[in-house]
Amino acid sequence: MSSAAVTPGSKGKVLLAYSGGLDTSCILVWLIEQGYEVLAYLANVGQEEDFEAAREKALKIGATKVFIEDLRREFVKETIFPAVQCNAIYENIYLLGTSVARPIIARKQMEIAKQEGCTHVSHGCTGKGNDQVRFELAYHALNPSIEVVAPWRIPEFYTRFPGRQHLLDYAEQKGIPVSQTRGKPWSTDENLFHISYEAGILEDPNVTPPKDMWKLTVDPEDAPDTPERIEIVFSGGNPSRVINKGDGTDVTDPLDLFVYLNTVARRNGVGRIDIVENRFIGIKSRGCYETPGGTLLRIAHMDLEGLVLDREVRAYRDEHVTPVYGRLLYNGMFFSPEGDLLNKIIPLTQASVNGTVRLKLYKGTASVEGRWSDTETLYDMDESSMDVQGGFEPLDSQGFIKIQSIRLKKWGAKALN
Amino acid sequence: MSSAAVTPGSKGKVLLAYSGGLDTSCILVWLIEQGYEVLAYLANVGQEEDFEAAREKALKIGATKVFIEDLRREFVKETIFPAVQCNAIYENIYLLGTSVARPIIARKQMEIAKQEGCTHVSHGCTGKGNDQVRFELAYHALNPSIEVVAPWRIPEFYTRFPGRQHLLDYAEQKGIPVSQTRGKPWSTDENLFHISYEAGILEDPNVTPPKDMWKLTVDPEDAPDTPERIEIVFSGGNPSRVINKGDGTDVTDPLDLFVYLNTVARRNGVGRIDIVENRFIGIKSRGCYETPGGTLLRIAHMDLEGLVLDREVRAYRDEHVTPVYGRLLYNGMFFSPEGDLLNKIIPLTQASVNGTVRLKLYKGTASVEGRWSDTETLYDMDESSMDVQGGFEPLDSQGFIKIQSIRLKKWGAKALN
Amino acid sequence: MSSAAVTPGSKGKVLLAYSGGLDTSCILVWLIEQGYEVLAYLANVGQEEDFEAAREKALKIGATKVFIEDLRREFVKETIFPAVQCNAIYENIYLLGTSVARPIIARKQMEIAKQEGCTHVSHGCTGKGNDQVRFELAYHALNPSIEVVAPWRIPEFYTRFPGRQHLLDYAEQKGIPVSQTRGKPWSTDENLFHISYEAGILEDPNVTPPKDMWKLTVDPEDAPDTPERIEIVFSGGNPSRVINKGDGTDVTDPLDLFVYLNTVARRNGVGRIDIVENRFIGIKSRGCYETPGGTLLRIAHMDLEGLVLDREVRAYRDEHVTPVYGRLLYNGMFFSPEGDLLNKIIPLTQASVNGTVRLKLYKGTASVEGRWSDTETLYDMDESSMDVQGGFEPLDSQGFIKIQSIRLKKWGAKALN
Amino acid sequence: MSSAAVTPGSKGKVLLAYSGGLDTSCILVWLIEQGYEVLAYLANVGQEEDFEAAREKALKIGATKVFIEDLRREFVKETIFPAVQCNAIYENIYLLGTSVARPIIARKQMEIAKQEGCTHVSHGCTGKGNDQVRFELAYHALNPSIEVVAPWRIPEFYTRFPGRQHLLDYAEQKGIPVSQTRGKPWSTDENLFHISYEAGILEDPNVTPPKDMWKLTVDPEDAPDTPERIEIVFSGGNPSRVINKGDGTDVTDPLDLFVYLNTVARRNGVGRIDIVENRFIGIKSRGCYETPGGTLLRIAHMDLEGLVLDREVRAYRDEHVTPVYGRLLYNGMFFSPEGDLLNKIIPLTQASVNGTVRLKLYKGTASVEGRWSDTETLYDMDESSMDVQGGFEPLDSQGFIKIQSIRLKKWGAKALN
């Protein structure tokens, strides 16, 4: 197709999820070339970014409008906290730091697209990854009438740009400013909750990431030699207060509290993992992640649940909510009938999760040193005691064991002897 | 009941699980007093113990025979390794160190009881804990015709010994040697896999355990300032070799390998937890645990599974095997129809779990630095690569997403807009 | 114990769940003999019963008060309808007819016990069955301070009455009227939802129940030779209207509607099963059940869900709610933390379950002949059509299949060839 | 593309799954036109078919070879019996009659394709259905190097044949014999296990299927007025013998036995359902099915499991195997890592499933009249008995209930009062 033949804007308005980097800058220009009017959208979910520079760059290279949205507060309250409440995790290890940001980013994008009369939305995700799926499933659920343009899946685009050098050439040719002449040998995605590293040299799962890759947390070996101690208070399963008597911190605002947890975890080297995971599309992929504050919240929240959550409610949540929720977040199904259902179920499990957990942070570790709850009473020191009789009749255990053994005796008599 | 009235041995032979400590020594003598002939049985599952001193003590206070059995090798191979293979865990945190020892101890006890013509077996577990359940369910399954004597659930016994002092008085009166005049203010259970601490001052869940409580592992703050690095090799999901180039270690024997992992984890402060858990009988209880080598195996095994296990097999195992197996171990159902079934299922999931994981140990942390597998091929660097096309057609993702969105669009059109 | 020594009423007031039959009449008199003041409580949950005769009998034999409570409406609305909403079933076959009545009966009993100042409640359940567990767990959860007297587990009682003849002798001696001189060779439990038959000649699982055992439903062989057709309307997963154009029925009141469904199912022989089930206490037991109206509701509700419930919500409910709820109902855990949670989850799954199902009833069968929903739109005739393209691009399936096959090709290349 | 330009056979050999009907006959000719050499493959999985006529037709219209394979025996033994063993079902109602045939058909097709040096395989499934997925996932897993040609997803094909009339025109033009001038207003898929009806007039889910649609079973209203009785014997969960004393039947061969069960179920009108289901690709679809013999096996097998299967093994299988297996069969994942795992797990659950079930068949119903097992002993008449004490101590139930209630009392004291 000859771009000369395209009337500018003839294909309608597209709202592009723009990062300011090389890829989405080239996409922005390419979309204009294809006949779209391009509006740029940049979500602030806590990543380190020069937002104003990105705004100027987008306008300079042809965007007709730029939207920069601070979504940090809703990110913390609407997806990070629910993930903490249900101890969300993927494949037993990954805290879903990218996944929890996507619904927040996509929702605002669709709101703006609707308000601005866009017929399309676009993004710079590759055709092999999870994020294309997460963004697009959210887009489709939120507004089925708006179309998606995914350049990295359009042959005209991806055959034109088979490598980074082709993007750099195009940028030069189109006058797109390029801040960094040499990319890092890995990709990253950063937000308030975490940063991910993948691709490049990390594709060999036996390559140890270089020390300078890790950006958010101090190397445990470089962390302070003296532990720090904090207290995290939970109300209804949500963190409601963080206290560090050592540095005088006492925060209650959800965003401030989360930012502080990041700070204290980062300086003590807490929250790194290095894994091989299974992407939704069936490919295995190696990723490294730093989730500083989120790791503290997970440890503290799970510990408190031990004290205040009924055994069967906990088991139900652990087996029937946590893995399902982790997988649906990972697979981009936050906005879905089942996502909606689970988002309603999670708080039902958390009414009794009230109390305080004391953590010690030291060179990459976060250990629980104690916990208490003023309002919850499932833990009963007398009952639990091995020394005190505590209203408990040993003979009851006798009956309990005997009844349990009926089935086993029958089986054992036959199978084992 | 007047003990004068009882003919010695008139109640038959009882095989007592004997520890050499105050409780089971008093029980031994009390059982003789009740008219039993008492045989003592002491399982070596790797706990620190003067077995010969215990033997002499048992004989001295009236046991007619003493059986000291080294079960460490079968412990490692028959319950520790399967637990590692399925990443067994209770309430997301406890590695089941007591639970995995019980089946091994109980099985040998029942073998000896049968061989010696015992009509009864006995143990010193309290009436409020999990271990009474674990031992007795195993006993009943393994030999329904042998009866159980559980003194701590017999009113004559527990009303006679309401506190530790009463046991000490009885010991003095009966000539039972007491090595320790003052007990520690907590209880412990130790084996090759772990040590547990509970009761006493730990009953207040907000009391931080004193530094000198922890017995197996060095305090992370006192661990070496330089990391140690090891490699763990797995074959069929079982650890088959451990290499530490730093100290020249290269072990392959299951028991040696496990003992070495304990050594290296202990000196680096790895494997402590402090939790509140839900006992089988419905009471909440605070416990502290050290599981040094087991913690390394868990981390390495789970990591390798990321590389070599199919996504759906992993998800199946994680959701349908691991939690069920963890709970049945905890609840003492190892010897049961469902335990038998799961023990057969676990190895079926592990055929592809072959490869090596490199760990860094440092002041309480154990981090994965890389992993590889010579035989497994689910991970494909080209396919995974964001740079290489790798036989993957981006248009396929398009169709994948579109099909996934059919359902979501219908729902979204109705529910969200 | 000599009854002469007991001061009447000295043990406090007990509220006995009374049926008017031989067992509970003897228990009533025996409790008085033991020193209790006995108040009788008879719940009307729809069983066939001469309630006034029972009242007179209770008073005649010594009850100081009698409470007869019509609980049918709350039974239908509070436990039958939720059971229908989640397709509750035990071991894939039993519709839990006894289990759903127990919470309703126990709750009112505890209300009256509290209001009357009773220190105890009592019941006539045997020591081997499920109902003792169901009643008592409900009692304990609802009011932990009221004690339970379970005569069939008290040695003085059960050794005194080892068989039915001993109860008859006692009745004669104490002047307890006995309406039936000869019991049926099985036991029954009847309510609005079902009737159960067990014990006696049914204990041999290969004995075919005699034709005259079945009480609620006509033998299919004796049912009309012409089918009957009804329509059941659901709103939010609850039945809200039943129409039978054949006999002019059009009912909307929950109780009337359920009674009518019983009527029409009974006359067409619908709802019989004959099974061997696993009791909570680990014993296998043979039971026969008739659940006429409940069977129709189950068939119609499940059918409608096919039309209106999202696939993943249905799968979630089927795998994570239905079996858990069935087991907790069966095991008497309705009033429990997890029961409370599930009772809140169930309605969350049912918002879209609105529509009408047409059933044909004929000689023991109930077949769906069609269904529709005016408000729900997940079913889309064009989209579903094999003839119409319907906004569906066949190429999308191509990509969907290709992505699904990535994993399988890797595995197949290795495992199968 | 002009067909004149294509050299015959230049695209290689394709093995087409051929049915002899209009669609696959047109596909056969069209594939030749595209430049393929076409070999035809027709699997006999028990459908009613004139196989020799199909062979002649395939050869007449251009196939260079025709393979007609009798797969009935392996179908019964390798997928029907495992489905029975685990009570496989989809969405609680559909017995998966199409799904269980697909792996058998696909496997033989890939074997022949390899042996004949085919580079491609092809089928006549539409682009909206489940069968394209089932066939192709099996193809890809079984032989990743053979390509798939799916004409109904190729734009050149499906735009050329937008409706049945276009296929008829093409057939006339190409000399393809058309046996039936008018198609039925629905589609069917038949095999030994079942027949399905969908599409056409059935697309309105409220249309009652016409009486003459149902092909395999007699209308219950037309079935005999006298019940028939049969006995089904199971060994290791597989049916091993069927006896009908009424007609003198006594069969043990797996295929003969299954054919006989079909016969007896068909004549008594057993096995019809009419549902709306969720296809893998996310579309809802209405289907009617007849599964005569399979329905009898399901009823009998589940009943016997009540008698002989341990409660917890049954619960495990019901919650962790049956739904997973049903879904993977439905979604075409039989040949997959997880399918392989489950195929190994299923027999592990069935070792004790030995015994006989007596069924009564009558006008669409199949009721259990009794069951017994000579070898299994979990059912214990004395223990189960309400009249006999049976080695069961009522006081044990007391302890069992008390222990269960600890948790509930704590919760109840707080939550309910």
From TrEMBL, chains A, B, C, D:
<comment type="subunit">
    <text>Homotetramer.</text>
</comment>
<comment type="pathway">
    <text>Amino-acid biosynthesis; L-arginine biosynthesis; L-arginine from L-ornithine and carbamoyl phosphate: step 2/3.</text>
</comment>
<dbReference type="GO" id="GO:0005524">
    <property type="term" value="F:ATP binding"/>
</dbReference>
<dbReference type="InterPro" id="IPR014729">
    <property type="entry name" value="Rossmann-like_a/b/a_fold"/>
</dbReference>
<keyword id="KW-0547">Nucleotide-binding</keyword>
<dbReference type="InterPro" id="IPR024074">
    <property type="entry name" value="AS_cat/multimer_dom_body"/>
</dbReference>
<dbReference type="InterPro" id="IPR048268">
    <property type="entry name" value="Arginosuc_syn_C"/>
</dbReference>
<keyword id="KW-0028">Amino-acid biosynthesis</keyword>
<dbReference type="InterPro" id="IPR023434">
    <property type="entry name" value="Arginosuc_synth_type_1_subfam"/>
</dbReference>
<feature type="domain" description="Arginosuccinate synthase C-terminal">
    <location>
        <begin position="186"/>
        <end position="410"/>
    </location>
</feature>
<dbReference type="InterPro" id="IPR018223">
    <property type="entry name" value="Arginosuc_synth_CS"/>
</dbReference>
<dbReference type="GO" id="GO:0006526">
    <property type="term" value="P:L-arginine biosynthetic process"/>
</dbReference>
<dbReference type="GO" id="GO:0000050">
    <property type="term" value="P:urea cycle"/>
</dbReference>
<dbReference type="Pfam" id="PF20979">
    <property type="entry name" value="Arginosuc_syn_C"/>
</dbReference>
<keyword id="KW-0055">Arginine biosynthesis</keyword>
<protein>
    <recommendedName>
        <fullName>Argininosuccinate synthase</fullName>
        <ecNumber>6.3.4.5</ecNumber>
    </recommendedName>
</protein>
<comment type="similarity">
    <text>Belongs to the argininosuccinate synthase family. Type 1 subfamily.</text>
</comment>
<dbReference type="InterPro" id="IPR001518">
    <property type="entry name" value="Arginosuc_synth"/>
</dbReference>
<keyword id="KW-0067">ATP-binding</keyword>
<keyword id="KW-0436">Ligase</keyword>
<dbReference type="GO" id="GO:0004055">
    <property type="term" value="F:argininosuccinate synthase activity"/>
</dbReference>
<dbReference type="Pfam" id="PF00764">
    <property type="entry name" value="Arginosuc_synth"/>
</dbReference>
<dbReference type="InterPro" id="IPR048267">
    <property type="entry name" value="Arginosuc_syn_N"/>
</dbReference>
<dbReference type="GO" id="GO:0000053">
    <property type="term" value="P:argininosuccinate metabolic process"/>
</dbReference>
<dbReference type="GO" id="GO:0005737">
    <property type="term" value="C:cytoplasm"/>
</dbReference>
<feature type="domain" description="Arginosuccinate synthase-like N-terminal">
    <location>
        <begin position="13"/>
        <end position="177"/>
    </location>
</feature>
